[in-house]
Structures are given as C-alpha cells and as structure tokens.
Design brief:
The complex is a heterodimer of chains A (270) and B (375). With 270 residues, chain A is an alpha/beta fold. Chain A is built from 10 helices and 10 strands. The longest helix of chain A is centred in the N-terminal third of the chain and has 19 residues. Chain A starts with a helix and ends in a 7-residue tail after the last helix. Chain B starts with a helix and ends with a strand. Classes of the chains: A alpha/beta (270), B mainly beta (375). At the A-B interface, α1, α3 and α4 of A face β8 and β11 of B.
Chain lengths: 270, 375
C-alpha cells in the first residue's frame, strides 16, 4: 500500500514539476525578422549572465503570439502588431498580450543587382504584386518577365507588406511563397528578373534595394516614417514583463542592446 | 442519391476554389462507448462518431469561405455511413463599415451561448445543442466582429430557424433573430449573453375544426392557425486563471403556444383562455471546470442540470461528467493535432421510477490541415 502511495505521489510530482521548475531559463519564439535581434541579444546577454539559459527559435509572428497565448514561451517575437482577434482570444483565456517595442524596421524592396530599375512607387508595387504588370520593360527596365517572390502568409513581414502595399488587393497566385527572409534574399540574388521584400537587416551586396516613392530605406527615413513601408518590431509577453523576461527586454532596450539592434541592420527605438 | 449529390457539391466546390488559396482540414473521432442503464449494458461499440472534411477558400483579403461535410457511422444508412452538410458560408470582411467586423452569408454558425466556439473539450455536446435549444448551424445572414481593442465579441443574425437539416418544403415561414454579446472585462474574466427570438409558423400547424350541434350537424367551421413562439436566452461567465478555467452557463427557453382563430383573428376565446396548450419554460444550468496540468494533460469536469418544464415536478435530470484529455501531438501554434479523450458520464433522473444511465467513452481525435495554393 505504502509503495502504491509513493508511486502515485512520484507520478504527480513528475507531472507537476515542469510547471514550476523554470529556474534561470527564458524561452523565445516567433518572427524570423526579429530572430537575428533575439539571437544576438541572447548570446550577448548569456555571455554576461552565464547562469541564464536562453532558447531562441523562429516560426513566424503568428507562432510567436500563439506560443505566448499557450504559455509555451516567455517572449513571443512579432514583426507585426497582434490582431484584434488574437488580443480577444488571449483576454478570454486569461492572457494579457503586452507589446514591447524593441526596434524599428523598414521592409526593403529588393531586386537582383543586375536589374537597372532604381525606384518603384507603391502603386507600381501593387500592380506588380497583383499581376497587372508582368514585365520589367513596363517599368523602364529590361524586357524580362517579373518573377514575384513573397513571404508565407503566417509571416508578419507578409502581413505588413499586405497591409501597406497590397492594401486589400489579392496577390498574384503565381508568386513564390518563401518561409524566411534569408530564403527571399537568396532567391533574389540568384534570379535576374526577381523582385521580393525583406527586413532591413537582411540587405547585403548580393541583392539591390530600390527606393520606394523615391525614398531610400535608411535609419532616418524609417525613424521619421517618411519611408512608406516601415514598421515596429515587437516582443510580446503575458502582461508587463517580469523576472527573466523583464531583465532580457530591459537589456535589449538599453544602449548596449540597441547597439545590437543596429548591428543586425535594424533601426533603434531611441 | 443524397450522398451522390453531396459528393457532387464537394467536387464542384473544389473545382471552384482550385485557383484560390484554400485550407484543407480533416478531423476524425474514433470512439469506444460502453453505456449502462440500471446496471444493464445498453451499448458497447466502436464507431466513427464524427468526421469532417473542411475547405476554407480565401478568394481575396476580404472574402473567404467555409465548406464542411460531416460524416459518421450510421446504422440507418445502407452502407453504414451518414453524411451532412454542416457549413457552407462566405465571410465578407470590411463589407460593413465597422472595424474588425464581417458579414456572413450561408449555412453558418449559430452565435448563441457557447455553441459557436464549443471545441468539444468534453466528448459531450455544448449544453444548448445537447438540450435542443438551438442547432449548431443554420441558414442565415449575420454581422459579427470584435469590440474595440479586443474587449469582446458581438453578433447579430437572422436565420431560417430550422438548423442545417431542413430547407425547402419544411421551412418555417418566419425568420428567427439573434443577438449575442461577449465581454472580456479583464484578462481571464468573461461575461456573455445571447437572445434569440424564434417562431414556428408552418403550413402543417394550420388546423381546421368543425363545431357540431347535438344532432351532429355542422354549425361552424373555424380554421386555427397555430404559432409557437420561443424566447431563448443564455447567460454565460468564464474565468480563466493560469491552468484553471471555469465556464458556467444558464439557458432559458420560454415557449408560447398560440392558436389564432382565423374567423375573428383572436388568439383567445370569450373567457380569455388560450385556445392552445399551456406555455412552458425549460432551464439548463451547466458548470464546467477545466485544469491544464501541463501541455499534455487536461482534466475536465462538468455538471448539467436540465429542467424541461419548470411547471412539472420530477421531469428533469442531472448529469455529472469527469474527463481527461491526453494530447499526443500539437501543431506549431499549439493547437491539438492528435489526442485521446476519456469521459465518464452519469445521468440521474429526478423521477424515482426512472433509471440512472452511465457511459464510459474513450475517443481518439486526429486532425490534419494543409494549405493549397498558399499565397
């Protein structure tokens, strides 16, 4: 009998222990745009706080917000703001989605470096992505078909692009839907007629950013909002951050953390 | 024949949406049921209690649809499988100039009580469904959406009032109207209420009555036009703090039977009495606590008290349910993909001469979904 009681108590303890035994752990998941900031900041923070164990993974903004709602992570990264539906569902389930803005970003419109086109307007981008313009010669470029590259629908980058550029229009069915900023950048660099969009942190010499409405995506134009496809980047927590989550977010918002934000190619919030 | 028509509809729907981004989802419930009544085994079976194939095409950023074909084991069907069309609607976002609202048209959810977001945490149905207050879906048109900043949800709708099973010849002549509001007062505290006005006024409720004198000669003929008026109400509260959730719901159904004498247009005779049978009121109270032990295991209990007619003694029953859900797989958004539900349910009638019923149910639910033509 005693043995049975001990066995039952052991099973209960094994089941319940993971709920409380978090220690100096911090889990982060979500947007692939915010991922480089979270990874670099986590690395730097763990260097100065060796007792901390920070796990960072991607998955997309929707996954980041859903993971906070499910209580599976401490911080959910998102490159878009939480939707009303997500906020409502969270509130109903006792979760207060708290938005911590950690960086500014612009979505850069990128083409292959061999493409001579230097500027596109929002209207032209809308025509391109809805399939109404299908050849670069209609935009003053070479006689070459446009290869549309876009992001998957669960991506916050797609949501922001959809809202600011497509503005309710339907994207052309032929667009390549890629799962990460890196995948978009690689495809653009390898495809002469391609056009795509990536977070500012993913710009490199292998792809060319065009100006939008004759405004270049720079730190200044993003901070003063004159660049038309700019946004804020977020880390969501359940309520105002506490404990390890607060320490980590405070670190990202500190001058040292914001330096990491800039090093990753994004724009600081200060 | 009916199944062939449904399959044809399905194929037509797939063909229509072939160029639209479409979410394909399938869910299957394999259940073992062991039921007893007064100590005797009444059921010991394994069956597919429910399965559905769902298509959700996205025609544009503002227009999307849902088509749901349910199927289940059915002894009455020749090949042992029953089918029903459960959803067939289109959502038009931003059609109504209210932020975060949508217009829905077709065979759509009934936004009453908790039936429209019931996710079968227990194997048992939602209380409003189980005690026949409303059907879970119905043909209609409605506007629903979110209150500013996610402080709640609302819905107003007009329905046929017959549920998903009836259209055409059996159709009620009157439309039914519904209003629903749910407010999230603070994170974890929800209050909600629904009201539905429902009438039944069909051709088969028209009666002809011939009055005879003592010698059997007809002296008067009166046509009575029967009407049944239903007032359905639901009040719900939900508390969610950490791993604990408690949902409580009170349901009330008032039925008024009216019989109109078409000769004078009155519903009452000279003495002021109704021509028809007495009105009745049904009430149901349901309380459901849930405890999420961890990401794998939930414990659930539920207590229902049903009084079908508040004017009649000992005609109701109460049901206690204890259950556990064991989640084997979840998707990237933590939604269940594969899990086992085990429920023990005991129903005790108020009347002493009626027998207690109990059932043990173990159910394997598996869900998969994929996006086609994702944009």
């Amino acid at each position: 009998m005693k043995l049975r009681i001990i066995a039952i108590l052991t099973i209960i303890a094994l089941l319940v222990t993971p709920m409380f035994a978090r220690g100096d752990r911090l889990t982060i998941a979500g947007s692939t745009t915010v991922l480089p900031i979270a990874q670099a900041a986590a690395e730097a923070y763990m260097n100065s706080h060796p007792e901390m164990n920070i796990s960072v993974r991607g998955g997309g903004s929707s996954v980041g917000i859903a993971s906070v709602m499910a209580g599976n992570v401490d911080i959910g990264d998102a490159s878009r703001k939480a939707k009303t539906k997500e906020i409502a569902t969270a509130r109903e389930n006792g979760i207060d989605l708290y938005c911590n803005i950690v960086a500014n970003d612009g979505i850069a419109i990128v083409v292959n470096p061999s493409n001579p086109v230097k500027n596109l307007t929002i209207d032209q981008l809308q025509s391109i992505y809805t399939g109404n313009v299908q050849n670069w010669k209609e935009l003053g470029g070479p006689n070459k078909p446009i290869v549309l590259v876009s992001r998957d629908v669960s991506s916050g980058t797609f949501e922001v692009f959809n809202k600011l550029v497509l503005q309710g229009s339907t994207q052309d069915a032929g667009a390549l839907m890629l799962a990460s900023n890196n995948a978009v950048a690689t495809t653009i660099s390898n495809t002469p007629g391609a056009i795509g969009y990536v977070g500012l942190g993913y710009l490199s010499d292998n792809i060319k950013a065009v100006t939008v409405n004759n405004v270049k995506a720079t730190k200044q134009t993003i901070q003063d909002k004159s660049y038309p496809i700019s946004r804020t980047l977020h880390m969501y927590t359940n309520g105002a951050p506490k404990g390890n989550a607060k320490k980590f977010i405070d670190y990202i918002l500190s001058p040292e953390g914001q330096k990491i934000v800039e090093e990753q190619g994004f724009v600081s919030v200060r | 024949m009916r199944k062939l028509i449904l399959i044809f509809l399905l194929v037509a729907a797939i063909s229509t949406i072939a160029n639209a981004e479409t979410k394909l989802k399938m869910e299957l419930w394999n259940r073992w049921t062991y039921a007893m009544e007064d100590g005797d085994v009444t059921e010991n079976e394994m069956a597919l209690k429910r399965g559905y194939l769902r298509l959700e095409p996205v025609f544009s950023g503002n227009i999307k649809g849902r088509f749901n074909l349910d199927f289940f084991s059915d002894d009455g069907a020749l090949d042992g499988v029953g089918m029903k069309l459960k959803y067939a609607y289109l959502d038009f976002s931003n059609f109504v100039p209210i932020k975060d609202s949508k217009l829905t048209v077709g065979l759509m959810k009934t936004y009453f009580g908790t039936i429209y977001d019931w996710s079968y945490q227990t194997i048992a149905k939602d209380p409003a469904d189980k005690y026949k207050f409303v059907s879970s879906t119905d043909y209609g048109l409605g506007v629903s959406g979110y209150l500013p900043n996610g402080y709640g949800t609302y819905a107003v709708a007009a329905y046929n009032g017959e549920g998903y099973k009836k259209t055409g010849g059996d159709l009620n002549l009157d439309m039914n109207y519904l209003a629903n509001l749910r407010v999230y007062v603070m994170p974890g505290v929800t209050f909600g209420g629904s009201y539905m006005k429902k009438t039944k006024n069909t051709d088969d409720l028209i009666e002809k009555e011939v009055f005879l004198d003592n010698e059997g000669t007809a002296i008067d003929t009166v046509i009575f036009n029967d009407r049944e008026e239903y007032s359905l109400m639901s009040g719900m509260a939900k508390l969610a703090f950490g791993p604990l959730k408690i949902t409580g719901q009170y349901l009330l159904k008032d039925i008024s039977y009216l019989q109109e004498n078409e000769n004078d247009g009155n519903y009452f005779d000279e003495d002021g009495d109704s021509y028809k049978e007495e009105d009745c009121t049904q009430t149901v109270v349901s309380i459901m606590p849930q405890f999420k032990l961890n990401n794998k295991i939930d414990f659930i209990a539920r207590y229902d008290m049903n009084d079908p007619n508040t004017d009649v003694d000992d005609d109701g029953d109460s049901t206690i349910l204890l259950g556990m859900n064991y989640h084997i797989l979840r998707d990237s958004k933590n939604k269940p993909k594969l899990f086992v539900q085990a429920n023990y349910e005991m129903t005790t009638p108020e009347a002493d001469d009626e027998d207690e019923e109990s059932a043990l149910m173990v159910q394997l639910r598996w869900i998969f979904s994929e996006k086609i033509n994702a944009k």
